[in-house]
């Protein structure tokens, strides 16, 4: 495992490269701690792991991480790039495969847990990153103390039918997207012309452009940027779900820990009827439908998303007092 350090948005960030659950792959993982802990009662908080949606990367969670309320703001936090996306895609460029099984994301979550020795972590995932937490907890019950599922992408088979990449509408849309620009400045101007990106919080958009792009030198010697996640990898993640997409829906009913689903009122992934079907499968589940946002609610409203996470954890987790620190104060 290798590591390097930086500071951003009031956070000490350590960048790690760790083995994935498949030996030939590696994972890029950031760990976060506040530069100055927020005042809070002397409580021991669990670690929190964040997973991103398809086509995104770990840094996209930083606006949410930096806005968590105490005591959760003082937790050790982890965010990693799915093996075929973000910095992990760069690390694995020579071994990326034509197909992507969603179970690999779940196995890699458990690999992060084991690598860092995490006990009873909280899982916070967006889209298929949320589904991966469901799969991971079903595979290894008791790994997590709670899960926050931000507009989770998991469906019964009768709603979402798997399709080859050539016939999958989301995959084909992805393959047609632009993936090169002359500079990050040009990229930002271009993205802000699109309705999809206009709704994002400015911090999220800047982080997406800064950390989701790779500097390249073209054949003519000019410089530019391209997506770290190759378009084909994003497309195949939409199309080649394996059984993970369905199993993460069915498996919710087996999970014995609190689950909080946060969905966008305008989500094209989770219409109200479907998200309530998911809630009904949760043994210990709660639901919040956030007004005025869609599937990318954590990118559009990081403060409200952070509040949902903090408030949920306040309700469901009783934190032990750190006795040694209490004695030191006395």
TrEMBL record:
<dbReference type="InterPro" id="IPR029058">
    <property type="entry name" value="AB_hydrolase_fold"/>
</dbReference>
<dbReference type="InterPro" id="IPR050228">
    <property type="entry name" value="Carboxylesterase_BioH"/>
</dbReference>
<feature type="domain" description="AB hydrolase-1">
    <location>
        <begin position="48"/>
        <end position="307"/>
    </location>
</feature>
<protein>
    <recommendedName>
        <fullName>AB hydrolase-1 domain-containing protein</fullName>
    </recommendedName>
</protein>
<dbReference type="InterPro" id="IPR000073">
    <property type="entry name" value="AB_hydrolase_1"/>
</dbReference>
<dbReference type="Pfam" id="PF12697">
    <property type="entry name" value="Abhydrolase_6"/>
</dbReference>
